[in-house]
């Protein structure tokens, strides 16, 4: 069944019904029915033939086709057996598309190894100018671990363009001293620049989700990314700093560093950076948190060398 110029809920439901399928909410199967928006996602990634586009959630392959037109190589992962087969038929003549069957996540904190192996392989085939992009209408229940963990992979994506819940986009873009500002905002803003491309009403999906969505773009800042001595340390420590978000910074750092730094070491680090006993992590700007975590890391390193 070829795609109409404007995909509709009726068209999609007929197509799935003909294949004996219906959307599964446990897999976050809310399909974009406005093909102009599928175009917008693909165009916002500004792909070239030097790029490897990774899509998590092939669905029926509407976005995959557009990525295949624009990118050098496309890797698309789909957990649902039936959709994997259906998309395989639709995309059979696309020589630059590789479909991967299964869960994109090995567990909550790790991406499946096969994905990055394939990304690296596709990049090496495209040559030294190859870039890596995540472009997807993400399943909402796994959007946070996918975006967050992908940034810890080697290489990280140069750009991410994703449809996610609006509430998650708000958290990623949040500024200090707001309720949405937290470890995720700091982690992603420390190494990349987020832009809100479009807010999407539930009406543009079939079936309609309960919440608004957003197309979010994140551009990796290579210089900031490469300035980190230990990115995982930064990621993990930032999470610990926001674990008790209402507590004062000193007590948060003391408990996060228990067994690793003495209270006196923590006080020294905080005093050096000009933080007093009333500072809270949630009011600190991203560069301040970057400096703090680096100072904690250096203090911890010095300590372990002296043991
Ligand atoms: C929101 S739909 C997007 C489908 C399609 N890309 C589109 O834009 O219409 C999300 C897709 O991700 C798949 N999916 C859900 N969880 C997944 C996981 N953990 N790993 C891989 N795919 C998953 C679903 O089966 C579904 O096809």
TrEMBL record:
Q: Which residues bind S-adenosyl-L-methionine?
A: 30, 32, 57, 78, 103, 137
Q: Which reaction does it catalyse?
A: adenosine(1518)/adenosine(1519) in 16S rRNA + 4 S-adenosyl-L-methionine = N(6)-dimethyladenosine(1518)/N(6)-dimethyladenosine(1519) in 16S rRNA + 4 S-adenosyl-L-homocysteine + 4 H(+)
Q: Enumerate the PROSITE patterns for this protein.
A: RRNA_A_DIMETH (PS01131), SAM_RNA_A_N6_MT (PS51689)
Which InterPro entries does the entry link to?
Answer: KsgA/Erm (IPR001737), rRNA_Ade_diMease-like_C (IPR023165), rRNA_Ade_Mease_Trfase_CS (IPR020596), rRNA_Ade_methylase_Trfase_N (IPR020598), rRNA_adenine_dimethylase (IPR011530), SAM-dependent_MTases_sf (IPR029063)
Keywords, A to Z, come to: Cytoplasm, Methyltransferase, RNA-binding, rRNA processing, S-adenosyl-L-methionine, Transferase
Q: Which enzyme type, at the first EC level? A: transferase
UniProt cross-references to HAMAP family, sorted A to Z? 16SrRNA_methyltr_A
Q: What is this protein called?
A: Ribosomal RNA small subunit methyltransferase A
Annotated organism of origin: Crateriforma conspicua
